[in-house]
Amino acid sequence: MFFTFRAALCVFAFLAAPAWAQTDAFGKIFVEATWRMQKALTMTGQGGILDHPEMLPIYFAPEAAAALLDVRGRVDPFSGVRDPKFRQSVVSEDRDPQDDGWVYQVTVEGAEGAQILMVRLDMHEGAFRIANISGEDAQGPWQLVQSAAAPPQAIVPIQTGAAPAQPDHNMLEAPGFEDPFEGADIGTNWQLMNEDPSRYVVENGSVLLLLSGDRSVMDSADPVNLMQLTPLLPPQADYVAELRFHLHGDAQDETVGLALRNGSEDFLGADLVMRRSGCGPDLVLRTHNKRVLNTKDRAFHSLVEYPLLSKHLNTEFCRPEGRARADAILNALREGGGQLRLIRDGWQHSFQFETRVDGQSVAFSTGLLTRFDPLTQLTLLAGKDAAVPGTGTVLFDHFSIVFK
Predict the structure, then answer these.
(1) Which helix (DSSP H) or strand (DSSP E) does residue 393 occupy?
(2) Does the pTM exceed 0.85?
(3) What's the CATH number for 176-403?
């Protein structure tokens, strides 16, 4: 009986009817049927779709099928974790307006919690096939078919001072926006949330923020002096947002963050964290993708950490030469400053960190993060990742957005 059910779904996958096959609704049906098949196989002890080679051409485009072995050593692409079994999957219909394919979000709930997957379909020989699946785990973003992350983009001057004239809905428009933080206050383009006037001052073309007290980061319920850009970002725009800053490193666990944020339970962003270790200070770049799943009320926080000085931008961190390079990077952030960038390209986002040591660029780019629901509220935050003694200092020197 089960073989008959499987055969019926296989026939469904092969159907090619131009009257309906090129619609989002039937693409969603195909994705739902595929994940039901995976669940039926795993729950009846027959492995999964990947354990049946004869089924791969039915569900996967050739390039995606060829990449299955590479990603399977890390995760099962149907569950988003190593265990191919899951209890429930929910498919939401999300069409990328800048793409000719079909894109769907699949929320998969299993023993290890909930995972969010992005599934991209295309038409192969007249029928739907999976062209790519992507997700995130503790190691960072993964995907079946690799695509290059957006290259670093130079930030060019747009308009100094006030934001350009906005329409009634207070939305930023091309070519972009620039704020060098001149004047005696932050101006009308920013709103300080949970303002504490004793912890910041605007002078000499910078916003100086004093960091002390309790933990105050992007996922805090009430982060102190959260700078919220008053004009909203267009929901379908691609852009590069850049914050230039100085991080002095006077205390432990100082952070500098840039995010698209609707609240502590719904945001996508990155922050740099000053961490102490037995070999001296380290600098960790963290990416956050936190959102409420469509199958339960609690928020799911996908957090990836990139240790920069002890791994990605340095070697031999605990040896004299490695420690000297780490200290040179930290000194560059104090003296010359650094940049934290957010790059949006369709549903995909990435972050970049850059500074200069002895005139040479030192840079790192994160993996891609996916959000189907557009986030339009941009925020900046300097805070502390833990309630530890000491007062830290961060300067925000310049902020800009350039639309692609």
Answers:
(1) strand 392-403
(2) no
(3) 2.60.120.200
